[in-house]
Amino acid sequence: MHLRIISLVFAVQCSILAPVQAANCQLQNLAVTPLQPGHYEVFHATGKSVELRFNSVSNDAHVDAFPEPPLQILQRASNTQCEINAGIWVRKDVYLSRDEQLLLTHEYSGSNDFLVFYSTRDCSKLHELDVSVSTWKISGNLIRTEKQDGKRRSRQDYALNASCLPQTMRK
């Protein structure tokens, strides 16, 4: 009997927490702007408690990618930071989860493109999704990819799970 009550409490907690966790995994596109107006060496994007900083040697206000590591993640509340030391980050494709625990960036090198998921707490790489030769779109906690291979077109949809990582949706 005691085990049934514990199981019931756990099931209720899961049903209550799952929508909350899903809401925290909503991805929001961030504007990346110069840290100081008129100066184009450092760009940043901000959330409520997190600031991202990108380096640029191009000295161009309209730069579209940042190939100069590191990408810095600054936690405002704790006044701590961590760094990501690899990647060419696409300026228009920087996303932060609603709870600001997850950073998603579009990164590329040569002919390879990836959506890369990082923890904002310690900059650890959590997951990468290969989107090479694909178009893709992020809407809230959903990611849709489409790939054209000759005459064949394939589509794959992903939903962010409770850990805010992509999980293949069944067709």
Written overview of the protein:
With 171 residues, the chain is mainly beta. It has a domain at 23-132: Lipocalin. It has one helix and 15 strands; from the N terminus they run αβββββββββββββββ. It has one helix at 2-24, and strands at residues 27-29, 33-36, 39-46, 50-55, 65-66, 68-75, 80-84, 89-97, 102-109, 112-119, 125-130, 134-139, 142-149, 152-160, 166-168. Strands 1, 5, 8, 9, 10 and 11 form a six-stranded antiparallel beta sheet that branches. It starts with a helix and ends with a strand.
Structural topology:
Blueprint: H1 2-24, E1 27-29, E2 33-36, E3 39-46, E4 50-55, E5 65-66, E6 68-75, E7 80-84, E8 89-97, E9 102-109, E10 112-119, E11 125-130, E12 134-139, E13 142-149, E14 152-160, E15 166-168
Antiparallel strand pairs: 1-8, 2-3, 3-4, 4-6, 5-8, 6-7, 8-9, 9-10, 10-11, 12-13, 13-14, 14-15
